[in-house]
Amino acid sequence: MSEHPPHALLRPAIALPFLLVALIWGSTWFVITTQIDGVPAYWSVAWRFVAATPAMFALALFMRNPLAMPRRAHWLAVLLGLFQFCGNYNFVYLSELHLTSGIVALLIGMMIVPNAILGRFMLGQRITARFTIGSAIALVGIALLLLNEAHVSPFGGDVALGVVLALVAMVAASIANVIQAGEVGKSVPLVTLLAWSMLYGTIIDGGVAWALAGPPVIPREPLYWAGIAWLALVGSVVTFPIYYDLVRKLGAGRAAYNGILVVVIAMFISTLFEGFQWTPLAIAGGALAMLGMLVALRARNV
After folding, report:
1. How far apart are CA 226 and CA 212, in angstroms?
2. Which of 72, 106, 112 minimizes the C-alpha distance to 251?
3. Which candidate, 199, 207, 1, 176, places its Cα nearest to that of 76?
4. Which candidate, 28, 80, 10, places its Cα nearest to that of 263?
5. E strands in the chain
6. Which residue in 220, 218, 221 sits closest to 209, CA to CA?
7. How many helices (H) and strands (E) does the chain have?
8. pTM for the full predicted model
9. What is the pLDDT, as a whole number, of residue 1?
10. Burial (0-12, 13-18, 19+ Cβ within 10 Å), 68
11. Are 286 and 271 in contact, with CB atoms under 8 Å apart?
12. What are the tens digits of pLDDT across the range 75-107?
């Protein structure tokens, strides 16, 4: 059970990595849109982790972490690869075919809800009334934003399908968040666990891509590979060890508040580059979503 008070997030040792992860992940939502234009989303996910996996193993070696793990840790790594590095990312990429990156980020930002619920049943972390109220307010705000998206979506995509895909991605990421913070995950070095998880996830990604999108598609555009480099090295190798460490220190529910800052950054970028339209309905929805998340943020022991 997490015993950290709300002001724990203000300590530099937590606040600085918290902010760094938010800034990086806030940018990745838009970069993903450069990966799905003319390239099957499944292969873009696979290439991302083909690049990220060796770098994560190299990081483990640089940190002098042992690469050997017990069998039960490998089974955990397989599950992390399946839920985080395959399920979560494939559904995120697919959802961005129908929704702007800022809206997808907002939906994923509501991971605080499943994180708290799963954390309660799997890790014994409490859910408070303030957290429940804040989450309800945020959900109303998100509903208004999605209603606005259905009216003005610049992609003309299937908004309902995009929402379902993003929600599945959110649940997959939440499961990974919680299970890695259990006893088995804590019994091995975090970067070692992530390296093996990425390897297993990459293998699954390649199989899924080949089965659903055919033989490998290898783009030639430099911009595409620049995006892969950013997403793989900075958006994955740099951020995941930091974020999962925050999950272990703060608890699954509170660590997911990182999504608040991520959403603000992602929505700002979406406004600049994707033409997201801030109608009165969108402004009201965004304000309620942020208010709800901040109310939940002040809840204790979540």
Report:
1. 25
2. 112
3. 176
4. 28
5. none
6. 218
7. 15, 0
8. 0.83
9. 40
10. exposed
11. no
12. 999 999 999 999 999 999 999 898 888 888 878
